[in-house]
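From the shared-data thread, chain only:
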Amino acid sequence: MPSLLNYDLTALFETQEHAAVENCQRSEFVRKVFSFQSDCITLCLNFSGVERFKNATKATAIRMFSVDCLSHVIVSFRLALYGAIPQSLTILRGAVEASALLLHVVFGQRYETAIYEANKKFDEIEFKNTLRQLGTIGNDIEFHWARMSEYAHASAKRIRLAAYTHDGLEYDRIGGAIDPDGAATGAYFSMHPAVCILVCLREAARQEPEGFPGSRSSRN
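Structure, as tokens:
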């Protein structure tokens, strides 16, 4: 196994960037998800701002959960590009949780409850309770979340990922890896919460009497 002796943080960060380039070049799926996520996040950021909704409470609730979810998606996807798969999926669980809460808040129009509980303690919109309230969609989200948890917890599956093979040699997965298949796995899981945010923003727009300000297409 090649030695990592004398590697400091600067050297490790350089290997991460190299791994990200290699993983993108070696996986068409990763490149496609990168393009999808770039467009998706741009849309989300453009249509989740407080200026998009007339009701200040609604605007704040949507922005709060959207920002939390998107931040987790962005960081998780970056880690997936690095080949840091267990860490990517660990962070991505936060995105899945935030997207579920936003679904619950938007489709139930629980904007005031969201703001109130965010300043106190989650009760009605607590994650597990939210999943129950969402019914079949909640079951799907819980299944998705549980699959990621198999690698996020200190499980045998996660520990087995501490090493990886590249060009016939075994390496330690220290902060990253040239592992295009692993990067594709993280990229795949990252799409679910991002799509949930888009669905929520569309529904939030449909609830507005005139759609988003300045937009004629939000009801289409």
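The chain has one domain: 9-207.
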